[in-house]
Amino acid sequence: MKKLCILADSPGSAEFIFPVIPRLMGRFECHIITVKDPPTRVLSAYHPIRVEDEKEAERVFEIFKPDALCIGTSSLIFGPFVAKTLVRNATFKKLPIVCYQDYWANHRSPMNKEIMDLWHITLVPDILAEKFLREDGYHGKIIITGHPGFEKFSTINVKERRSAVRNDYAIPNNGFLILYAGAATPFGAEWDMITFRFFIDAISRMDERPIIIATPHPRDEDPMRYMKIAAEKNISVLNLHAHQSSDDILPGTDAVIGMYATTLLHACYLRIPAISILLPDAGAVRLAKINLKDFPPNEIGASIGIYESSPERLIDVCACLQKDSEYRNSIRNAQEKLLPWSEILPSQIAAEAIENFLIDR
Of 291, 301, 306, which Cα lies nearest the Cα of 338? Predict the structure, then answer.
């Protein structure tokens, strides 16, 4: 049985590969490496080897002696650069390299740009992700698999979960609940703070204030930042219950707001309105770092883009979401068009793609 080394250095890449791993375990001897805490928690069921730096990762890789490497696109701007280290190690050993991409255009992050020509095949969630890779000159094989990490949403009964979440947090059925999806990674904290202050300013001007839950990014170094900022405007923010994640409470929400984040995509899959705030000095700057002009779902109305520095547009959108059923239905229709459910699970497609590629290597 061939040995396959799987690397995840971010929660997003770990989420992508999580449902694929059990399908691979029957076909390969899998050894999983994670970088630091967030992806380690996501993949804890598979007992990954956690590493803190490049040297430790290289040592573990040498102990494994794998026949192939499977890595997620990295989002670590400041390191450790484990993905680059292992890809170059595998290339030196002439091992086949499979990359899996969890998010549009994140191959444009600096470390990925350095090594993407060394990926033999790349698994991507949709045709748009393929388009961005080709535009940037990637010549390897691309396989569209869907996003395995999102297939879990296909079985969620949103109506039932909505009642359970609201009972858990003592929120009335007619209360308008907004989830703010934090993006304060070490790389993006400044932009996220600008966005959250803008959001809170808009909330403070509303005649009927919504109920707010703010969830920090898994790599946020100050998870209480949202409560402190909201308190400056005398606005309360609910605490996320212990051992819960944003996914646990998503079905109970009426809207999800943030810059651009995986949680906004999760909302789209659950057919919940998502609002992407891309201010000129915040979200738009961050998108520009990966050469995107907009959060892709905004472009077809599957999510709502806010681009102006004045809060009136956000206030109007929230009012429409509360009162205009046709407006909500138009968003839902766009979400179903952009993110349809397939009869074949993405995890099955991804596992078969990896096996078919490696079987003859």
Answer: 301
